[in-house]
Design a protein that fits this description.
By secondary structure, the chain is of the alpha+beta class. The chain contains two helices and seven strands; from the N terminus they run E-E-E-E-H-E-E-E-H. About 30% of the residues are buried.
Length: about 130
């Protein structure tokens, strides 16, 4: 089974979530920018690459913290003092999402995978 990686951006008590397009894995579900780890690539290197490919935002100079594994998805956290807004129209793989936004624990959009929802709520409260 392929391993994947994703990045959660947390800013001001909210996290960045993106809605998956209907042609992709988990169609219509809210998730994070994520993708497959390529051969010879570390999960951290893949996190930087995938986040850029899906958002057109470079975070390579940012510290990411590994926060968990949901099934085959390695999840990293980026704490940011400002909200980073994806430009889906300029991103190489921006068509994987139909919209993105920042959400707090009492306003999380649905549907989301239950394990992922629990992790997200824990991170927002941290």
């Amino acid at each position: 089974m392929k391993k994947s990686v994703g990045v959660i951006v947390r800013s001001g008590g909210k996290i960045l979530l993106c809605k998956r397009n209907y042609e992709n894995v988990l169609p219509g579900y809210w998730s994070i920018p994520a993708g497959n780890i390529e051969n010879g690539e570390t999960p951290l290197d893949a996190a930087y690459r995938e986040f850029f490919e899906e958002t057109n935002i470079s975070i390579e100079n940012k510290n990411l913290t590994f926060v968990g594994l949901v099934e085959n998805l390695y999840i990293y956290l980026l704490d940011s003092n400002q909200k980073l807004y994806p430009n889906l129209s300029l991103a190489q793989d921006g068509d994987e999402h139909s919209e993105c936004g920042y959400y707090g624990k009492d306003e999380l959009p649905e549907p989301m995978v239950p394990q992922f929802t629990r992790l997200v709520k824990t991170l927002i409260l941290a």
